[in-house]
Amino acid sequence: MGCTSCSTGKDGQPRGCKNNGTCGTDGCNKLTVFDWLSNMSLPNGEKAFDCVEVRFKNSRKEFFRNAENLSLTIGDLVTTQAQSGHDVGMVTLAGELVKVQMKRKKVDYKDDTLPKIYRKATQNDIDKWENCRNREEEIKKRAREIAIILKLQMKISDVEFQGDGSKATFYYTAEERIDFRQLIKDMAKAFSIRIEMRQIGYRQEAQRLGGIGSCGRELCCSTWLSDFRSVGTSAARYQQLSLNPQKLAGQCGKLKCCLNYELDVYMDALKDFPSQETKLQTEKGIAFCQKTDIFKGTLWFSYKDEPANWHALSKEQVLEIQEKNKNKQPVPSLEEYAVENHVSDDKVVFENVVGQDSLTRFDRPKHSKGRKSNKNRNKKRSNHNNRKRQSKNA
Fold first, then answer.
1. Which of 106, 259, 345, 347 could form a disulfide with 235 if both were Cys (CB 3.0 to 4.6 A apart)?
2. Taking the complete model, does pTM exceed 0.85, yes or no?
3. Which residues, 6 or more positions from 149, have their beta carbon under 8 angstroms from its beta carbon?
4. Please, which residues bridge with residue 155 across strands?
């Protein structure tokens, strides 16, 4: 993710807008929503929607009412209402599209208890907010040390300060229920702030922290994916993927969300395919399905007595054999059908246009032809000299 004015520097930080990922266009931020209604003017007599979407640290977003009718645009830092004190965040969406987002998140925009925006953030608010953000890594490290001393089976993954610095929220993951009452007392004594502990799942942890997936791109959950659907091993089975947990698991340790992306296409394609548990009755014996290839429309069968010898059949041929089995018509063997699908070795399946298919082409000596020609010349010269000697002696 990146706006048009950003470029990557030597240290990996965005360079160009000089804001390290918090530029005014909001193109560098997580879960950015494109405001496609920004260029449309309101009809006469219509008032602008009085709610805005504000993003805080990482992917946390909330909706606030613009009760003071401030002129807000995407990228403005605002001071918002909190449970106690105030918080500082960035406006990520404004206008009529906020109403659509609130309906999608099931937030009532007519609710009078909706928190409000106090003002645009002043320089004093921004300085205090930045000082709190700079303390977060140090406090997170210290909080982990306290949790280890108390022998709590939990992982503190992130710390988020409130804008006024009076409160800090600690996000943690744990397999079981944790009694962190003593932990809160120790941290409140060490940091002199109010503490809030919030447990999150492993997918929410990956969403907040971000990272690079095995595909080489940023994690979907931290860039655009906002809802986490359950992912089962059946999704991998339908796509005929090897059930290797190291390859199927993402950064969160759970099954990758992208396993669901193409699952519907495979499900539609498998509707016309014979079942994986199909058995074919032949005179040679019973054949079991070993593998299916949805893209080629091919199924591999093997006899019960010969499990290592597979026979490739097309989908139509399998359906034909099944129909014959229902009508109790004899089927001699699978070999008769497999011979029709056999591709002769003379058929060209790959044509090398460039002429550089050899991996050892650079290992050959550069002057091999010259050396061979020199050897031939020396051989001819020696033969010629021998003939001269024989003629002189005669």
1. 259
2. no
3. none
4. 173
pLDDT tens digits for range 248-267:
999 888 999 999 998 998 88
Q: What is the DSSP letter of 17?
A: S
| Residue 258 near residue 235 (C-beta atoms within 8 A) | no
Measuring CA to CA, which residue among 288, 315, 286 is closest to residue 299?
Answer: 315
How far is residue 59 from each of residues 32, 170, 222, 344, measured CA to CA in Å?
9, 15, 7, 57
Pick 127-205's CATH classification: 3.30.70, 3.60.21, 3.30.300, 3.40.50: 3.30.300
Per the structure block, which two tokens stand in for 336? 């008769």
Query: Distance between alpha carbon 294 and the CA centroid of its chain, in Å?
Result: 24
Q: How many helices (H) and strands (E) does the chain have?
A: 11, 14
* Residue with tokens 């320089």, as numbered in its chain: 123
> Distance between CA atoms of 74 and 226, rounded to whole angstroms?
20
Q: Give the containing element (helix H, strand E) for 267.
A: helix 263-270
pLDDT of residue 118: 93
Where along the chain do the CATH 3.30.300 domains lie? 127-205
Q: Cβ-count burial of 315 within 10 angstroms (0-12 exposed, 13-18 middle, 19+ buried)?
A: middle
Return d(Cα 389, Cα 71) in angstroms, integer: 110
Which whole number is the average pLDDT over 332-352?
A: 62
Is residue 273 within 8 A of residue 294, CB to CB? The reply is: yes
d(C-alpha 170, C-alpha 180), whole Å? 12
Interval 154-202: pLDDT, tens: 999 999 999 999 999 999 999 988 888 899 999 999 999 999 999 999 9
